[in-house]
Amino acid sequence: MRSGNKTLSLFAAFGIVFLFTAPILWMVMAAFKTISDIYAIPPVWLPDFSYLENFTLLLTENWQFLRNSIVVTLGSTALCMAFALPTAFGLVNFGFRGRHFLADWILSTRMMPPIAAAVPLFILFNNLGMLDTVGALVIVYAGFNLPFAIWVAMSFFRNIPKEIIEAARIEGCSWFQTFWIVAIPLARSGIATVATFVFIFAWNELLLALFLTTREAKTFPVVISSFSTVTKTYWELISAATIIQILPPVIFTLIMQRHIVSGLTMGAVKN
Fold first, then answer.
1. Is residue 231 helix, strand or coil?
2. What are the angstrom distances between the C-alpha of 92 and each of 16, 95, 171?
3. Which of 144, 140, 146 is nearest to 125 (CA)?
4. CA distance linking residue 239 with residue 246, whole number of Å
């Protein structure tokens, strides 16, 4: 009976995994098909993986927008972490009035939907002459991800024993030295976790890029959305672009995997 339950559970697990991965598998196969193969009946199940015309056409016309996405994502992640880590460290270790209220207020800003700020941001950057610039997207992406980064980083800084922070202060370290030399190395796994999520959020952002760019600073998600028009959907280009779009987060996550696992389990067991 137990063996039958185990087999049933296994089939159910495989079914659920297939349900969620089927669209991705279809996109991967469609990226290596011609237009006629995509619409063929009966379907062409195994494509010719040496067929790279879709990728060639896509990157020839849109490589600069892929570059924009890379620059904006890396820049906004670095900027966000540069502000989030000192803020999180200060909120955890500095005893001042209203720090809990300040932390709650920072979190509350994350609850605002991006669409609510899209028009004000458009007007602001238009008046500053920064509309359709990479710099504007870096600032906006970093700002929207900042509350999340601060709150998650706070949870990791709280797991650092207070005795270590106090010992560093007694030994004569300034608060900056305590933060940079002591806290950052001890929380590096948690920091890697925060950076990974911020990277993914920034890389996949579409709405704000649609509002704040027209041509020069357009990002790759905006390019993907442009392949679906009123008259036609370019499935071959969407499929090729989707593969390119999912690769950087997957690679970044695999590189950070060891730190992410230890970061997510940090503090799970109390001594």
1. coil
2. 41, 8, 20
3. 140
4. 11
Q: Tell me the two tokens of residue 182.
A: 């002591």
CA 95 to chain centre: 32
**Token output for 244:** 């390119």
Nearest Cα neighbor of 179 from 75, 89, 65, 60 is: 89
> Which sign, positive or negative, has the C-alpha torsion 82, 93, 105, 192?
positive
User: How would you write the pLDDT of the chain (271 residues) with one tens digit per residue?
Assistant: 466 678 888 889 999 998 988 888 888 899 999 888 888 888 888 888 888 999 999 999 899 999 999 999 999 999 999 999 999 999 999 888 888 888 888 888 888 888 888 899 999 999 999 999 999 999 999 999 999 999 999 988 988 999 999 999 998 999 999 999 999 999 888 898 899 999 999 999 999 999 999 889 999 999 999 998 888 889 999 999 999 999 988 888 888 777 666 655 555 545 4
Contacts of 140 (CB under 8 A, 6+ apart): 76, 121, 208, 212
Q: Which domains does the chain show, CATH number per domain?
A: 60-264 (1.10.3720.10)
Q: Could you identify the residue written with the tokens 């458009």?
A: 122
Q: Are 91 and 150 in contact (CB under 8 A)?
A: yes
In 3D, which of 83, 71, 82 has the Cα closest to residue 134?
Answer: 71
Query: Rounded to whole angstroms, how far apart are CA atoms 131 and 43?
Result: 45
User: Is the separation of the CB atoms in 174 and 168 below 8 Å?
Assistant: no
